[in-house]
Design brief:
The chain is mostly helical. It contains seven helices and two strands. It has helices spanning 9-23, 29-35, 43-55, 74-110, 117-144, 148-182, 187-196; strands spanning 60-64, 67-71. The chain has a two-stranded antiparallel ribbon. A hairpin with a 2-residue loop joins strand 1 (60-64) and strand 2. Helix 1 packs across helix 3 (43-55). The longest helix has 37 residues, at 74-110. The model has no long low-confidence stretch (mean pLDDT 76).
Length: 217
C-alpha cells in the first residue's frame, strides 16, 4: 500500500484560506492550529503557511489588546489577482509597443534595398568574398587542430561559456521561484508565459562533456 502524499505548500495555503472563506470570521493563531488538521494541514505547519499568506496580502492581521487576530475575505484574493492581471496586462502592452517599434524599424531598413542590377551585382560580389573567407577559415582550422595554444584557448572558452549559461539558468530558476511565491494565483498565466519564451519542463542546467586531448603531431 503506497504512502499517502502530503500536501504541497500551495495546497496548504488553499486549505487555510478556505477556513476563512467558509466562516468569514476572525481567528487567533491557536484557533487556526486546531482547525488546520481538519483540513489536512498539520498543526506544526499552520503558522508558516499563515505567515506566507500574510506576506502575500491574502490574509490580514491586526493586534487587538494583547491578541493578534487573522482574517480574510474572498475579496482579498480577488484584489490580489486583479493586481497581478493588471501587471501582466501592462507587460503585454509594453511588449506589443516594442513589437510595433521593431516592425517600424524593419520597414525603415528595407528602404533602399529594392531589387536592382547594381544591388544584385554587389550581392554576388559579397557572396564570392564570403565563400573565399570560408575556404580560408577552413584551412586555418585544419592547422589550429594541432595547435596546443589554440586547443587550450578553446577549452577555456568552453568553460567560460558553460559557467555563464548555468549562471543564467540559475537566475531563471530563482526568478521562477520568486514569481511562484509572490503571485501564486497567477500560476497558469506564468506557466503560459514561461512556455512562450521557451522555458519548458525539460529546461535544466547544461552538463559539460569532457574535452578530448588534442594530438600534437
Amino acid at each position: 500500500m503506497s504512502k499517502k502524499r502530503g500536501l504541497s505548500l500551495d495546497e496548504k495555503r488553499e486549505k487555510i484560506l478556505q477556513i476563512f472563506y467558509d466562516s468569514q470570521d476572525f481567528y487567533l493563531l491557536k484557533e487556526l492550529e486546531k482547525l488546520g488538521p481538519r483540513k489536512g494541514v498539520i498543526t506544526q505547519s499552520v503558522k508558516d503557511v499563515l505567515q506566507s499568506l500574510v506576506d502575500d496580502d491574502l490574509v490580514l492581521k491586526d493586534k487587538i489588546g494583547t491578541s493578534v487576530y487573522f482574517w480574510s475575505l474572498p475579496s482579498c484574493a480577488g484584489n490580489q489577482l486583479r493586481n497581478v492581471y493588471r501587471k501582466l496586462e501592462s507587460d503585454l502592452s509594453s511588449s506589443k509597443k516594442r513589437l510595433a517599434e521593431l516592425v517600424e524599424q524593419s520597414d525603415a531598413l528595407k528602404k533602399g534595398r529594392e531589387a536592382s542590377d547594381e544591388r544584385e551585382e554587389a550581392l554576388a560580389d559579397l557572396k564570392e568574398i564570403e565563400n573565399k573567407h570560408r575556404v580560408l577559415k577552413d584551412e586555418m582550422e585544419q592547422y589550429a587542430d594541432n595547435d596546443p595554444a589554440a586547443f587550450e584557448a578553446m577549452r577555456e572558452a568552453i568553460d567560460v561559456a558553460h559557467s555563464a549559461a548555468n549562471r543564467w539558468t540559475d537566475n531563471i530558476f530563482t526568478l521562477r521561484q520568486w514569481c511562484s511565491n509572490n503571485f501564486p494565483q497567477a500560476k497558469e498565466q506564468l506557466e503560459n508565459l514561461y512556455k512562450e519564451v521557451g522555458i519548458t519542463d525539460e529546461f535544466d542546467y547544461l552538463e559539460l562533456s569532457p574535452v578530448p586531448l588534442a594530438i600534437v603531431e
